[in-house]
Amino acid sequence: RRRADRRHPHRAQAARRARLDEGGCLELRAESIDLLATAVSARLPGEGMDAAPLTVDEAARMIVGFDDVIVRDEVIEWCEGDWGEAARSLLTELVRRAVPPFDLAVLTALGWLSYLQGDGALAGIVVDRILANGPGNGMVRILDQALTAALPPTTFRAALQPSWPSGMPAGSTTPRPRPNPGAVPRSTRSQRRRRR
After folding, report:
1. Are the C-beta atoms of 29 and 68 separated by less than 8 Å?
2. What is the distance in angstroms between the CA of the first residue and the CA of the last residue of the chain?
3. What is the pLDDT of residues 38-49, one digit of tens each?
4. How many CB atoms lie within 10 A of CB 114?
5. CA distances from residue 39 to 27, 125, 141 in whole angstroms, order as listed
6. Contacts (Cβ under 8 Å, ≥6 apart) of 168
């Protein structure tokens, strides 16, 4: 099964590139966000936290969608409340299914989402995994520095503009609740280094 998973991201990426060559960038971006929002919605409490696992094709399509930094950054903003927990569940599944080099963007999104939710331990594990395989990207290096300096997530959360994924339930017009905005991540990389 893992061998089949390795082929699908390459096919999904080839299909994505062909559509980009045809000028379908905005359409492809909207499609990726809608696909991800639908999968997150299926993982909401009451909507079936035990959502059926993604098919190989669905997972591959979502994973290559993260190559678009706007898609990645949109998903990172989905960090609050039940929607945030469902987004994290989806990202965790996608990380398990992603293979290098397609895992970098999904890992980056999971690391940032976890950090913004106050889970510095998971964010640090994600950063370590990325940096063990190469230099990562600018977002990973910023996250690494934030964890090392023990910056609270509020430092970055204040800069986020609230965004509603297109898959949010109709009538959900109230702002998403912020989980303990002053919380410092549960663990930081600097604390882990001192323990080593």
Report:
1. yes
2. 37
3. 999 999 988 655
4. 27
5. 18, 24, 28
6. 37, 41, 83
- Identity of the amino acid at 28: L
Q: Are 11 and 60 in contact (CB under 8 A)?
A: yes
Task: Give the model confidence (pLDDT) of 121-146 as tens digits.
Answer: 999 999 999 999 888 899 999 999 99
Tokens of 126: 């994600």
Which H/E stretch holds residue 124?
A: helix 120-132
For residue 185, the tally of other CB atoms under 10 A from its CB is 24
On the question of a cis peptide bond just before residue 185, with omega within 30 degrees of 0, the verdict is no
Cis geometry, peptide bond prior to residue 53 (ω within 30 degrees of 0): no
Give the position of tokens 């991201």.
9
Joined together, the tokens standing for residue 60 give 């591959």
CA distance 176 to 18: 37
pTM, rounded to two decimals = 0.73
